Amino acid sequence: MPQYVWQQPTWPTFTMDYEQLTPQLGRCRHLQGQLYQQVKSLGLDLELKTQLESLTKEAVKTAEIEGELLNPDSVRSSVATRLGLPTGGLPAASRSVDGLVDVLLDATSGDNKPLTAERLKAWQAALFPTGYSGLFKIITGDWRTEPMQVVSGRIGREKVHYEAPPADRVNDEMEAFLTWWEGSHPEQGNVDPILRAGIAHYWFVAIHPFEDGNGRIGRALADMALAQGEGATKRCYSLSSTIMESRDSYYKVLSRTSNGEGDLTEWLTWFLRCLEQAMRQSQTTINKVMGISRFWQNVSHLDMNTRQRKALSKLLEAGEDGFEGGLTAKKYRGMSKGSRATVTRDLADLVEKGLLSMEGERRTTKYKLNWDYTKEIFQREEFAPEDGQEDGAKKTELPLEENPTPQSPQSPQSPFFKGGGFNSPL
User: Fold this and answer.
1) Element (H, E) at 356
2) Which of 87, 118, 131, 152 is 20 to 30 Å from 145 by CA-CA measure?
3) CA torsion, points 59, 65, 67, 70, in degrees to nearest 10?
């Protein structure tokens, strides 16, 4: 009796309840249209900055789903470099981070290059530039040659959740997948582009063609399918972020589907729910980018040094209440590498200019950004000093912690959809 989906006599034929999925599909299409128009109205500069935010989040979260924690600043540096944006002193990225960012950008570039086995193998090799996954040497740039099981539990008491097709079948399985991928391209008009993203993600991870990196590449393929369907090259939402929020249920629904008979309804329902949530959350990203832009426009006439701009950028990137523990003199010194006297002058100047406000006294003093500057574009007169007070006349005495130490910073039915089912070309 078949245990796994690929052992079913109908594999790789998938079925689904299209009528059940239709309401979710409608909402996702509506949100796609809204986001597309909103991003296009931002202008090129803000489009790129929105892409920077979304790609940084996507890279960090797709790695975190697999248990790998990346430095967000390092990821941002890699993304910014590839988008031609300033890095602002961010730390250099590792080869593995650069590789992941390259994969995500290549997947969503919109160049319509064919998806081939060689391209997928290059993606996987880019994820593991040293040839190691953690402490283990793995095959990179080629299909796996050993059995693949998804297991949990400690050594000696492992539980097998899924076993992928045998290694000697991987090449044929991937040929079938890639044939379907090209035949279901949005230009063909025979598969709903959003459903195509969910199907591609599931089908790829069910085959599990690589020794490692299958989840990250599967999610990149979903992003690629969505980008092709939207006709957009600049992503403004992160699917992996919402998947990460429900990681346990993600693995559970994949496991149930992989141990089933090929009905993708449950998986696609879950996938569409995540996609809808990701697009709704993207409004936060767009608002953040626009707020940062307003802030720098509002303060463009003020003279600030590099240290001050770096600290303000950190606060802006963290968002309101996002800078853990608040900004202190000690943290400012860690960011700026300045002397105690320099830190005192810098913070006093920012308070005097109205960009920061003080809370607490002496060692408990914290500094908060004036978020009003991000809400709207002010008229320049609003920045003029009060009558009888010259610019720079007011002096503010600020406490400094003792011995601070630096800190590290359409939807036509496809011919594959017959009777509510999806049939692969095999």
Assistant:
1) strand 356-359
2) 152
3) 20
Contacts of 86 (CB under 8 A, 6+ apart): 80
Fold matches, 5-289 and 299-383: no
Token code pair at residue 110: 């919109």
Domain regions of the chain by residue span: 5-289, 299-383
Helix (H) or strand (E) holding 408: none
| Tokens encoding 109 | 């570039």
Within its chain, how far is the Cα of 84 from the centroid? Answer: 18
Q: At what angle do helices 95-107 and 44-65 cross, to 10 degrees?
A: 120
pTM: 0.80
Q: CA 208 to CA 304: how far, in whole Å?
A: 53
Which tokens in the block code for residue 7?
């052992």
Q: Is the peptide bond before 385 cis (omega within 30 degrees of 0)?
A: no
One pLDDT digit (tens) per residue for the chain, 426 residues: 789 999 999 999 999 999 999 999 999 999 999 988 888 888 878 889 899 999 999 999 999 999 999 999 999 999 999 999 988 778 999 999 999 999 999 999 866 789 999 999 999 999 999 999 999 999 999 999 999 999 888 888 888 999 999 999 999 999 999 999 999 999 999 999 999 999 999 999 999 999 999 999 999 999 999 999 988 777 789 999 999 999 999 999 999 999 999 999 999 999 999 999 999 999 888 888 999 999 999 999 999 999 999 999 989 988 887 788 789 999 999 988 889 999 999 999 999 999 999 998 878 899 999 999 999 887 665 444 444 444 444 444 444 444 433 333 333 333 333 333 433 333
Instruction: Report the alpha-carbon angle 61-66-68, nearest 5.
Output: 75
Judge contact between 18 and 420, C-beta under 8 A.
yes
299-383 is a CATH 1.10.10.10 domain: yes
CA angle 265, 270, 272 (to 5 degrees): 90
**CA distances for 126 relative to 81, 82, 115, 174, angstroms:** 17, 15, 16, 19
Pairing of strands 421-423, 13-15: antiparallel
User: Residue 60: which residues within 8 A CB-CB, separation 6 or more?
Assistant: 70, 72, 75
358 CB-near residues (< 8 Å, 6+ apart)? 351, 365, 366, 367, 398
